Structure formats: C-alpha cells, structure tokens
Amino acid sequence: MSACTFFGHRDCPSGIRGKLQAEIDRLICNHGVETFYVGTQGSFDRMAYAALVEFRQRYRYIKVYRVLAYMPKLSDIAQDRSVLDDTILPEGIENAHPRYAIVIRNKWMIDRSDYVIAYVTHTFGGAYQAVERAKKKGKIIFAVDR
Hints:
β2 (33-38), α2 and β3 form a beta-alpha-beta unit. This protein has helices at 17-31, 43-58, 74-79, 98-111, 126-136, and strands at residues 2-8, 33-38, 63-67, 87-88, 115-119, 140-143. It is built from 5 helices and 6 strands.
C-alpha cells in the first residue's frame, strides 16, 4: 500500500484543479496509492482535500487524512466538530515551537509517503523546502502547474 502527500504554495490558482485531480486519479489507478496526507495551511491544501473527498466517493477504500501542525482550539471544535474529521496530529508536535510546527508536520508527511503532488512556482518558502526534502529522501514528485 502506497501513500501520497501534497505540498503547495498557500495561494494557488483554481485553474490547476483539473491537473491535480488527474494526478490523484493516476496515483490511485496506476500506482496503487490508498493513503493520502494533506496539510491545512492554504488554498492548495484545501483544493487537494476537496478533490480527495470527491475521490473517496468513487474509491471507497482510500484513506484521506488532514495532518495538523497545531492543536485545534477548543472554540474551533465547539463551532465545527468536522475540525476533527479525518485529522491526524503527529505525535510530539504539541511540544514544538509554533515557528517550527509546519516544518515538523511536513517532515512527518514526507516520511510516511512514497509520492508527492506539488504546486511550487518559486524557489523559496515552505512548500519549496518540503519538496526539496522529499527529493532528497527519494520520493517521486508529480508537479501540477498552470
């Protein structure tokens, strides 16, 4: 059973949605990916999660997890219990300094994945750094762009 994670810039155009969906479908059908990890920090993550929820209707066996970098606030949980749906909080991250929590979360996702779907358009920022780390770890990267 293979796993995939996603890294992309906080802001991304909605026009990449079709390419993102095509890559997800290809990984499920051609590479046997059954587990997906996605962050919660920006529009790319939201787009990936929404696409995965749709794919889960067609491929009921896939597992989709939103991986948190921070403990959810009680007020957020009280307002919307779905904050807890399909979520994982990497062990020990609650002790991490908030400045490093996303980096630690991203390392956790890389370590558990075979594939990465990425939307990276410049050579700075957390998404770029995560993809570079994934390359060094020998993960297979699929880029989605405009």
